[in-house]
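Collaborator request log, item 7. Partner lab (contact: R.S.) asked for a structural prediction of DUF2029 domain-containing protein to inform their binding assays.
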Amino acid sequence: MTAFTGASVSGLSGPESFAGESRADEGRDIPWPLLIAWGLALAVLAWLRLAPSARDTLWAEDGTLFLQSAAGHAQWTTLFAPYAGYLHLVPRLEAITTVDLVPVQWWALSMTALSCAVAGLVAVVVFVASRDLLPGIAPRLVVSGLTVLTPLLPREVLGNAANVHTLLFWGVFWVLLAAPRTRAGRIGYALFVLVSALTEIQTVFLLPLLLWNRRDRRTWPIKLALVVGVAGQFLAELLAPRGAGQPVTVGIPSLIDGWFINGILTSWVPIPVLGNILAASMPVILILALVPMAAVAVTTFFGTAAHRALAWILAGYSVLIWCAGVIVDPAPWYQYATFTQAELTHVWLSRYGVIPAMMLLAELPLAAVALVRSRSRPRRVAASVLIAAVVLTVFVQAPENLSRRDYGPAWGPQIAAAEQKCDRPTVTSVEIGETLGWSTRVPCSFFAGE
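Returned to partner:
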């Protein structure tokens, strides 16, 4: 509880300004060397959450689209090339870095490592950006740690270049709620938001947050960066529209069930046994929905105006992002409301549930901050319990290897056979397998002896 003491929650950004409170001392913060160490530690944790086979296996677009483009074209012309209706700036930068600096046998490991590094960077951004709304070190460490430790992350997002945009969305969300203190902070935030928005088209849903701190001129460059990035995404969609999805309509009951399963249950029920528990006791475990709901209620009752606003914004975005992903990219496996017991046993878990899960887990440290505004010892104890609950649930599941890349095919072991094929004078390129049956065509010039 010591991390809570001495931290003021007055003068918070956003709606708090209407309460007539002035900005107060933030309390002691983490020095930059320790903050960098925190980011590196989380990047390493992201790497360790993946099995060795997953680290060395490329996710579909990571090879077929990003690496193949970087290896076979004028690289900088591919940076803003649209794919599936939007831009992917960060994955393309990762691919260019890998192709230019890393031997071909380590390309998969490089893409995984760079994506884990991005996760660590986003975690640092979240820690710094959340200081206005989450005073005290402990709540901010927990919220930034969710960038890497949310249980659902390894399945399709962690260490995955194609889906690193999910983490960038999480970072932009917190930056838009921040009030930068220095010119360097403004520039850094603006660059982060611009690069993120040119990678993640769903940042369009964050445009309403431009109203937060709208009178603070220090935030205007950050907001302009979001607008520019979103405009770039709309231009990409006009030039290379996304293809039509599957002819499936996911009904409201399935959207609700899917949000509950992916956004709530994956955090509080061990994922390896989640399907069996769903099949055996679906009505009973609905009680877990009370966890984030109770946290919102606590924040609403005890928090400041800014805390209350943030609690409902987190809850609202958890629903919006889940529904947007499923509606834009529908499929039969999202028909949760129609699943039989046998189908629930093998329930589909989606990357669209990652942001909802992060936001609903963040409700607990936010409620803890609201509670410690009082000097009441019972409330401070309750706040510590909330923090401990989040830490416990994420660390219990942290060792689980849940990635869809766990079973390969690993990149490294395929290199020797690829080199032998390239020894033939008629062969100019070879295909190396990835997950989901995808493959990457690599020019023979990248192999030793060429």
